[in-house]
Design a protein that fits this description.
The complex is a heterodimer. Chain A is an alpha+beta fold. Chain A has 2 domains: 3-68 and 172-344, Aminopeptidase (3-Layer(aba) Sandwich); 70-157, Beta Barrel (Elongation Factor Tu (Ef-tu), domain 3), CATH 2.40.30.40. Chain A is built from 9 helices and 17 strands. In chain A, a hairpin with a 3-residue loop joins strand 10 and strand 11. By secondary structure, chain B is of the alpha+beta class. Chain B is built from 8 helices and 17 strands. In chain B, helix 1 packs across helix 4, helix 4 crosses helix 8 (332-348) and helix 6 crosses helix 8 (332-348). In chain B, 57% of the residues are buried. The chains are: A alpha+beta, B alpha+beta. The interface between A and B is large, with 65 and 68 residues.
Chain lengths: 351, 353
């Protein structure tokens, strides 16, 4: 299993919010053999299980969300044009002249988001179009389209992965499938006798819209958890304390709403094992699944970890492959750490 | 390798040829022309002239431009992010998020046009276009020193866009630089048809592959003075608006209805006899053609028709959606219509036209 290939393969899959299971077979084929079990929970979260082999072992949850931003068809127009609505937050500034794939009834269709020629543009030219003002050009006839797609057919950005300097790579949907790949990779490559408990990698659904990790965490009932999601990379025009730096390792979130002691333990482990990492301070919210997991059942101790990512929610998100390696190392350290297992692995507070 | 039709178009479109940096395109064209012309020369501007000798000294010019819209690197900031300016008219709305290639004579490097994520934008800025000045190109450099190892101020850039055939019967092409590599491609294929059919044209024909159209039509200006033609055919692309909801008169033309013949644009009023001859030739040869329905744009004819003592011009354009973007869309049927129309015109063009 090669980490970069797994990241690209996973990120290429169509898994737009609500359509996470669209290519589930491919996902299982990619990683299934490395796990003891792979199942869907009641709401559609995909769980991969690796047992440590010990009796009454702690249950460790690793969460990364499977869903990606995308669109679905709302109207089929004359001349082979489509209108769409967004699933998840998309900056309409990236839309025009982008390549899309329409996941039709039985085939994939290619399309281009129309850009308005200057002589047809209205207004000052400074306003971005709204999502329902954009058109997707399929160069098919309306009749052909009506036989190949329907209202509700998902539309995603076309994958095009390109490497840039310093072992960085750009393309669609590293949010959050690069993290999902790291969690799967770290768990698959750790010999089961080294695991501090049974590991449940949850590829949760719908994070970008409504979030379905809460019922997932409830059903799974882990002893402790790590939520892994991308974190906003530092680029021109952003504020230092609100961002993290690509290439400096994963971020560990310090927040009033995550487990303070578990967070401290993770920092200590990273230091002890000399795993590059950086602190990310989010005082009152993490913007990730961490809080939902933390507040599940009687409260599940949760630590929030981030992969630095620039150009978030575009089809050319940028990550550092060095960071994905160190993130994987940090995940391995977390799932093999006996001190954490001893502290949090028992559960069951009697009152 | 000798390429034809859609493979040739894709090959030419994927070359790196922003305005002012057309040599890679010129080399590809010269390679594809092979030995099909009586003479191929390149001037100091970079214009390429391919001569097909005919029966008389009368000179006809056919012109397409090799350059594409692109970028020029204006600065590298202290963190290694790259500032740029557009070469040719590009709507800022098609820039954000697009992959690009930056290059000079020696190097090429990948990058992406980026800006701060929507998460960092103030609420009121989320619905306005990010100005080019607030965008930057990210090549992944860790600092300015590293960026400067790969990129210089004054380097050029183009979109990095996959060339895709799609739509009904896969007869539509999507990619960068269709403006105006489609014209260059048609000229190469017309020359080949003349040779393959052993045709001797009634006049010397100069196929001119010009530079710098996108910033002031200056390549064609010197090319016309050098060739001194009596008549000229300009093969171009034209922005069209045949998209859902656009009123008929603003559609300009329709994809699939053949070459678009201009009566008038912002730089030229075309010679009416020559225009009529073009439309009649299309009709007589069962080739689709349509008249441009909107006065917009301009092309190399702007300079050519006023060069020397004046030149009768006609412009035949391929109607192209989303012109000047990484995702231009055009019909291969239109491409073929234009190629056949030019081939027919050259054989039927009498001296009095």
């Amino acid at each position: 299993m090669e980490l970069k290939k797994l990241i690209v393969d996973l990120s290429s899959l169509m898994s737009i919010g609500g359509f996470e299971r669209f290519e589930r077979e491919k996902l299982i084929n990619l990683v299934g053999e490395h796990f003891d079990d792979a199942y869907l929970d009641k709401v559609g979260n995909q769980i991969f299980v690796k047992k440590c082999g010990k009796e009454n072992a702690p249950r460790i949850m690793l969460d990364a969300h499977m869903d990606e931003i995308g669109m679905y068809v709302t109207e089929i127009l004359d001349g082979g044009f489509l209108r769409v609505t967004n699933i998840g937050g998309i900056d309409t500034g990236i839309m025009q002249a982008s390549d899309v794939i329409i996941y039709g009834n039985s085939e994939r269709l290619f399309g281009v988001v129309a850009s308005t020629p200057p002589h047809l543009a209205s207004g000052s030219g400074k306003d971005l179009p709204k999502m329902d003002e954009l058109l997707i050009d399929t160069c098919l006839t309306k009749e052909e389209l009506e036989s190949k797609i329907r209202i509700g057919t998902p539309v995603g950005f076309a994958p095009k992965y390109t490497e840039i300097l310093n072992n960085k790579i750009m393309g669609k949907s590293f949010d959050d499938k690069a993290c999902a790949a790291c969690a799967l990779y770290a768990t698959a490559n750790t010999p089961r006798e080294e695991l501090a408990g049974d590991v449940y990698v949850m590829l949760s659904c719908c994070e970008e819209v409504t979030g379905m990790v809460a019922p997932g965490a409830y059903a799974l009932n882990p002893n402790y958890a790590m939520s892994i999601d991308v974190n906003l990379g530092r680029v021109p025009g952003t504020i230092k304390e609100e961002t993290v730096e690509l290439g400096k390792g994963p971020s560990i979130t310090i927040s009033a709403v995550t487990d303070r002691k578990l967070t401290k333990m993770l920092f200590d482990i990273a230091k002890e094992k000399e795993i590059p990492h950086q602190a990310s301070v989010s005082p009152t919210h993490t913007g990730t699944n961490a809080v939902s997991i933390q507040l599940s059942r009687e409260g599940i101790p949760t630590v929030d970890v981030g992969l630095p990512l620039a150009s978030m929610h575009t089809y050319n998100e940028i990550i550092s492959l060095d960071d994905t390696k160190t993130l994987s190392d940090l995940i391995v350290a977390f799932i093999t750490d006996e001190k954490i297992a001893a502290e949090y692995g028992k559960g069951g507070l009697e009152i | 390798m000798r390429l034809c039709g859609r493979e040739l178009l894709e090959y030419l479109c994927q070359k790196f040829g922003p305005t002012g940096f057309e040599d890679e395109v010129a080399d590809a064209i010269i390679e594809q022309l092979g030995n099909d012309c009586d003479k191929v020369v390149k001037d100091s501007f970079g214009n390429v002239y391919a001569l097909v000798k005919g029966e008389s000294d009368d000179r006809v010019m056919i012109s397409s431009h090799m350059d594409e819209v692109g970028f020029m690197i204006t600065d590298i900031d202290s963190d290694g992010y790259i500032k740029f300016s557009n070469l040719g008219g590009i709507d800022p709305k098609v820039l954000y998020g697009k992959q690009v290639i930056i290059g000079n004579e020696k190097t090429r490097i990948n990058g992406v046009i980026a800006a701060k994520a929507i998460h960092h934008k103030r609420r009121e800025d989320r619905f306005t276009v990010t100005p080019i000045k607030e965008m930057y190109i990210d090549i992944g450099a860790k600092d300015a020193d590293e960026a400067k190892e790969y990129v210089n101020i004054g380097d050029f850039g183009v979109f990095n866009s996959d060339f895709v055939f799609f739509g009904t019967d896969n007869k539509y092409a999507k990619g960068k630089a269709i403006d105006d590599r489609a014209g260059c491609c048609a000229m190469i294929e017309v020359i080949r048809k003349i040779r393959e059919n052993n045709i001797t044209l009634p006049f010397n024909t100069y196929f001119c592959f010009t530079v710098r159209e996108e910033v002031g039509l200056s390549g064609a200006r010197v090319a016309a003075e050098r060739v001194k033609p009596s008549r000229a055919i300009i093969l171009e692309t034209t922005a069209i608006g045949d998209i859902a909801g656009a009123p008929a008169h603003k559609r300009v033309a329709d994809v699939g209805n053949g070459g678009v013949i201009s009566l008038m644009d912002r730089s030229t009023i075309y010679n009416s006899e020559f225009v009529n001859f073009t439309l009649e030739t299309a009709k007589n040869n069962d080739v689709k053609a349509q008249v441009k329905r909107y006065v917009s744009g301009g092309n190399d004819a702007g300079h050519i028709h006023k060069s020397g003592k004046g030149v009768k011009c006609v412009a035949i354009s391929m109607g192209t959606r989303y012109l000047h973007s990484p995702a231009c869309v055009a019909s291969m049927e239109d491409y073929e219509s234009i190629r056949e129309l030019v081939f027919a015109m050259l054989q039927n063009m009498k001296a009095e036209v």
